[in-house]
Amino acid sequence: MPCLNLPIQKVTPKDLRPKHMPRAMIGRISFEITPGHGMSLNDYQVRPQAQIKVRVPGYSDQSILATGLPEIQLKFCWPGYEHFDLVERLPLAGLKCNGQVAVAVAGVFKAMMQKAAQVVCREPRFAIAPGSPYTTHSIVLLALRHIYGDVFIAEVDYLPTSRVM
């Protein structure tokens, strides 16, 4: 069964006001194990850091630190929840590499999914709700994309749990 390519929503400067401006632009930080395949949000939360470091090739990279940002704003982009406009702050203090950022992003995205489950989804087939296929076990984290200022989105994909790496 092929993966469901979730559409990436556009985030424009009028949507959010940056709190901090980066000293460097970083574009996209990949957390892919192989192209198009990542670890589930759940795996980032339950696996030891040593296992994650072995599986994610860019774990030790420090490109996020080049921004000089004390924190980032992570915008929740999921079809049918555009009206929800959920943004969470993610402090970068104490995080030393992209892999640690991935673990933190997975935790924040999980919390945002829990909040989204309490809101009406305008695209029923993408609803995050009890009994839906979209869980922390079936959502994989592929990357963190820098949008502008200190605003980022998590690039995620849905894979049936039998295909999650």
Rg over CA atoms: 15 Å
- What distance separates the N and C termini? 14 Å
- Given as residue ranges, the uncertain stretches (5+ residues, pLDDT < 50) are 1-10
Per DSSP, the total helix count is 3
What proportion strand? Answer: 15-25%
Shape: globular
Set down the secondary structure blueprint.
Elements: E1 28-30, E2 39-40, H1 41-46, H2 49-55, E3 71-75, E4 87-91, H3 98-116, E5 139-148, E6 151-158
Parallel strand pairs: 3-6
Antiparallel strand pairs: 1-5, 2-5, 3-4, 5-6
Provide an overview of this structure:
The chain has helices at residues 41-46, 49-55, 98-116; strands spanning 28-30, 39-40, 71-75, 87-91, 139-148, 151-158. By secondary structure, the chain is of the alpha+beta class. It contains three helices and six strands.
Looking at this protein, list some descriptive labels:
about 20% strand, about 160 residues, globular, alpha+beta
What's the gist of this structure?
Strands 1, 2, 3, 4, 5 and 6 form a 6-stranded mixed β-sheet that branches. The two termini are 14 Å apart. Helices cover 19% and strands 20% of the residues.
